[in-house]
Design the sequence.
């Protein structure tokens, strides 16, 4: 049996409406109790030929249901329907059914007009009615047990932060027409970009889409940290493995520190998924940031202009007032808003003004229904509070921050913003907060300020989540960061306080502009205060300090050990920044006379093991560049190391093979006209008067593989051409090699199934009968 206990009364009524419409082959409408004396569903507002009374009563006793139905008898006689049905949210005995039937004998031809929960479930279990189940997401969501699997790393990979509040999210979610269209688009195309303004529901829509596909056997991969290249590498190369990737706020929260190649990495992932039948990709981004990315990257803009990925913009104007009402009601219902507060919304049908307000967004509704927010208002003023918040949405966090938080709470949030846009490890944040606290006056240090602030702000402004066994802390939603950014950058005194208490490296990039950073970095290196700063890793620290030393020509014997450690362990450490010297610039600088002599680089460079270790684990481009740097240096210094050439030969040959084996052939497919290739490998013949095509797919794959192999061989030769001839001559290149043809096969398959499409027919809001909204709230 499906799990019906998570349906509220409105959701159960809608389920019964869909069930009875199909059973009776009639269209039914939902009405409020106050307007028509108790009718839930009817086929005609004037004749009332059919009336369906829905009784939720899922967690109630039969005696309560019986009392309620007895009160309906006279009302039913007044309306005098041809047929009267009772749909019950409970299991009934034969005696119960007979008793209800006898109450309404004049309007029920048989006792089949009493529809029990068992009969509803039996109807929904019929495969012919799976579309109804799918429409009511809580049925399949809870019945699939997928929520109990969200921490199963075989299904949900790195999704802890995504699903930390999924039980709560699933209660509030309403499957709008927008959601249904997104499912259809993903089913047909596999790629979807969801854009929209702040707080319109991009993330929760994406979450529910991911959960739906998880129930269909897809493994889920998720990231918000910009590691797009790692996501692509982690996808299974098995064609039959079904996987869906969600890049939440893929251009937004991390946009400030994106690599210049980020859009290209994103395009590479998109193209890979597009060519894979069993891979799907959901991206979401604020529309302003999405437009900014298109301006920044020509290739990115062209890709979307050519409609190679479907873009869906969530516009609150496309969400009907009825859907907005359901979202609002779910928050009121599942957050157990007290009846006196609820009555303030029902009074004079105030709920209509809320759901029809031009500034309505789910995020504002979420905010005004939190207990810690509404309890600050008296019940009679609750509607006024909601309406004022809708009228001034930008003041949501302004009032909270300025009027309702303590000084120490504000310092806590400033410190959090100085560290991250998403979440940060508990221990790192705690250390930074205490450093900030040490500079504040009138603070009682005899109490546990950290725990007290956490307790006050948790679930109101911040969230505490478990990520791979470690506590992480972040703001409750992105709108908090939007406000903190304004406060942070406009309040110079507070910004100075945070700057003076920096103890974690990530704070620099968030507390200073790009123009200010070089001077600040120089100061910290010269003063050696950099040693007081904690880094993400030793490799990051080694890279940063060595880069600054080389950039500014700093001579300081205390940094000698760091430079040696950099050469031994941190060379080509990947850190996405455009403000530091590249690793190749660093090596070039260290080989210059002054730094070479002062930091005794000769002691490192003259040892065979050191050079081999330096060049190990580099990719092909990095290795070629490093070989050229060292080779030029040895020539200038007239140092003839035979062992250097032997190391180059060994590493180059291994790296070339590794390069070939890891090539994604799908990246090359766009260079060719797949349609022409298919036509060249298609035989046309007549069969019983009809013209038919016989496509030799294997030959098409083979032909494309040969073309791409030639491209790769040419590409490698071009890369090697920058090496000295005496090194090229000692290399033994593979005579032949086999490519991974999965990307090629996917490209062929994608072409064969692909069809051109125009802009998706956007759901446009038609007039919604006010009575349907009244039916939700007037109960």
Sequence:
């Amino acid at each position: 049996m499906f799990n019906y206990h998570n349906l509220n009364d409105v959701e159960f009524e809608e389920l019964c409406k869909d069930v009875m419409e199909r059973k009776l082959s009639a269209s039914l409408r939902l009405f409020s109790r106050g307007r028509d004396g108790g009718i839930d569903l009817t086929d005609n507002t004037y004749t009332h030929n059919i009336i369906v009374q829905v009784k939720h009563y899922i967690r109630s006793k039969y005696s309560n249901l019986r009392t309620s139905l007895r009160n309906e008898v006279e009302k039913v006689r007044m309306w005098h329907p041809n047929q009267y049905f009772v749909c019950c949210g409970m299991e009934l005995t034969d005696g119960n059914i007979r008793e209800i039937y006898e109450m309404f004998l004049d309007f029920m031809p048989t006792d089949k007009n009493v529809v029990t929960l068992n009969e509803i479930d039996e109807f929904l279990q019929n495969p012919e009615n799976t579309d109804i189940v799918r429409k009511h997401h809580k049925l399949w969501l809870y019945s699939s047990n997928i929520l109990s699997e969200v921490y199963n790393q075989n299904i949900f990979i790195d999704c802890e932060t995504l699903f930390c509040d999924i039980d709560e999210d699933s209660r509030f979610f309403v499957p709008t027409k927008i959601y249904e269209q997104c499912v259809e688009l993903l089913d047909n195309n596999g790629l979807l970009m969801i854009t929209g303004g702040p707080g319109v529901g991009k993330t929760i829509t994406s979450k529910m889409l991911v959960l739906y596909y998880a129930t269909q056997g897809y493994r889920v991969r998720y990231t918000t940290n910009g590691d797009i290249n790692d996501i692509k590498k982690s996808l299974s190369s098995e064609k039959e493995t079904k996987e869906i990737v969600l890049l939440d706020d893929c251009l937004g929260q991390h946009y400030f520190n994106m690599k210049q190649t980020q859009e290209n990495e994103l395009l590479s992932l998109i193209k890979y998924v597009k060519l894979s039948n069993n891979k799907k990709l959901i991206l979401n981004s604020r529309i302003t940031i999405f437009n900014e990315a298109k301006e920044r990257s020509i290739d990115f803009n062209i890709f979307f202009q050519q409609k190679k990925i479907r873009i869906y913009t969530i516009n609150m104007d496309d969400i009907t007032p009825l859907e907005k009402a359901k979202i609002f009601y779910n928050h009121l219902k599942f957050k157990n808003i007290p009846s006196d507060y609820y009555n303030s919304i029902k009074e004079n049908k105030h709920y209509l003004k809320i759901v029809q307000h031009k500034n309505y967004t789910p995020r504002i509704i979420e905010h005004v229904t939190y207990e810690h927010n509404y309890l600050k208002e008296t019940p009679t003023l609750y509607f006024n509070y909601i309406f004022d918040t809708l009228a001034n949405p930008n003041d949501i966090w302004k009032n909270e921050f300025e009027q309702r938080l303590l000084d120490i709470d504000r310092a806590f949030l400033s410190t959090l913003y100085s560290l991250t846009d998403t979440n940060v490890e508990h221990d790192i944040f705690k250390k930074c907060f205490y450093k900030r606290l040490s500079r504040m006056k009138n603070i009682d240090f005899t109490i546990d300020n950290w725990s007290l602030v956490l307790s006050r702000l948790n679930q109101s402004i911040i969230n505490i989540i478990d990520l791979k066994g470690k506590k992480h802390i972040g703001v409750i939603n992105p709108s908090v960061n939007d406000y903190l950014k304004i406060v942070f950058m406009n309040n110079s005194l507070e910004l100075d306080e945070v700057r003076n208490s920096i103890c974690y490296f990530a704070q620099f990039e968030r507390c200073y502009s790009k123009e200010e950073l070089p001077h600040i970095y120089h100061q910290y290196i010269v003063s050696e205060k950099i040693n007081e700063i904690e880094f993400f890793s030793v490799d990051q620290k080694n890279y940063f300090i060595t880069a600054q030393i080389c950039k500014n020509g700093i001579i300081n014997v205390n940094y000698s050990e760091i430079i040696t450690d950099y050469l031994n362990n941190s060379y080509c450490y990947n850190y996405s920044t455009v403000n530091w010297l590249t690793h190749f610039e660093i090596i070039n600088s260290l080989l210059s006379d002054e730094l070479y002599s002062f930091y005794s680089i000769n002691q490192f460079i003259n040892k065979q093991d050191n050079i081999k270790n330096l060049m190990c684990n580099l990719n092909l481009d990095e290795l070629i560049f490093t070989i050229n740097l060292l080779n030029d240096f040895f020539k200038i210094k007239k140092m003839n190391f035979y062992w250097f050439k032997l190391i180059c030969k060994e590493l180059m040959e291994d790296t070339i093979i590794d390069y070939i084996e890891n090539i994604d052939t799908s990246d090359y497919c766009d260079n060719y006209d797949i349609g022409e290739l298919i036509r060249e490998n298609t035989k046309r013949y007549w069969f019983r008067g009809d013209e038919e095509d016989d496509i030799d797919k294997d030959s098409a794959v083979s032909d494309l593989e040969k073309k791409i192999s030639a491209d790769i061989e040419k590409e490698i030769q071009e890369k090697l051409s920058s090496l000295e001839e005496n090194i090229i001559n000692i290399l033994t290149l593979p005579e032949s090699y086999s490519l991974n043809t999965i990307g090629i096969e996917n490209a062929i398959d994608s072409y064969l199934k692909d069809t051109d499409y125009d802009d998706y027919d956007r759901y446009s809001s038609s007039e919604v009968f006010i009575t349907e909204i009244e039916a939700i709230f007037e109960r």
